[in-house]
Here is the input.
Amino acid sequence: MNTVKFNIKLTPQEEAYRKRLIERLWQDARIQKFLEKYQLDIHFVENNTSYLEDWLENVDRCKGCRGLDFCRQNVTGLVKELFMDDYNCVSSKYRPCRHQQKLNKETNHEEKYRLSHLSKKDYLVDFNKISLENESTQYFPIYIQVKNSLEEEKGIYLCGIPGVGKSYLMMCVSNYYAKKGKRVSFVKVPQLISDLKSNFNEYDYQRDILNDLYYSEVLILDDLGSESISKWARDTILFPILDFRMERKLKTYFTSNLDIKQLEEKYAYCDGMKDNVSAKRIIERINTLSNCLELKGNSRR
Here is the structure.
């Protein structure tokens, strides 16, 4: 079979541009370092101008970067790295930039979560990042009691108006334990109930989710009482979780917009029927698992 050769003739203008590009690439310190590393010469530059130019453009996007929120790369936090493969062909791969590496290091405890409804930035939340100088006198004693609970047997039931900072404190709690190597779950109860309801007929899915909540060394149930209240959610989902954890004395935390009395009243009415006994059973387990605190103040949102 005869080989077909394509001979593309450049215009004088195109040829002049190509020569300028080769000269610019050849003089670039980064290109020189790459050529020296792999013992390559000017012919490599002449044969790979587009590849090298694209690489430099990618690297240049990181100049003066102020952080991941300002990243100009096509994929946030990743920069292209050039190398010669085993076949002596130029190739590339993406690696985390210095900002992404720092973030990865700060959030590597994420792998300790069995189940999590946290966003990536939530894994950065930490007690040490709270500036108490800017907090109210109402906040300080709650902060201290929540932090002290880390070394106590019982968790905390933290109630207060929406936006006052309850979930933030519980993120501090969950990240603290995860960094200590504990298996943690942080779930937003409304989302949990909605997910389980949407997958009502998926037995394996429900079993895996519930096992995570049963067996986590530390469990945070966020926004309790804001879920769609039903007999199924109360008696088939929440009660078994709390009962299991109470019997085994597993550390459990809660946040809610409702104080404990309001929560009991809400759980007493399900599916148009009143059931004080079932509501009291839930509350008894919450009281056994946690100490009730109220975080007062204005919404931070």
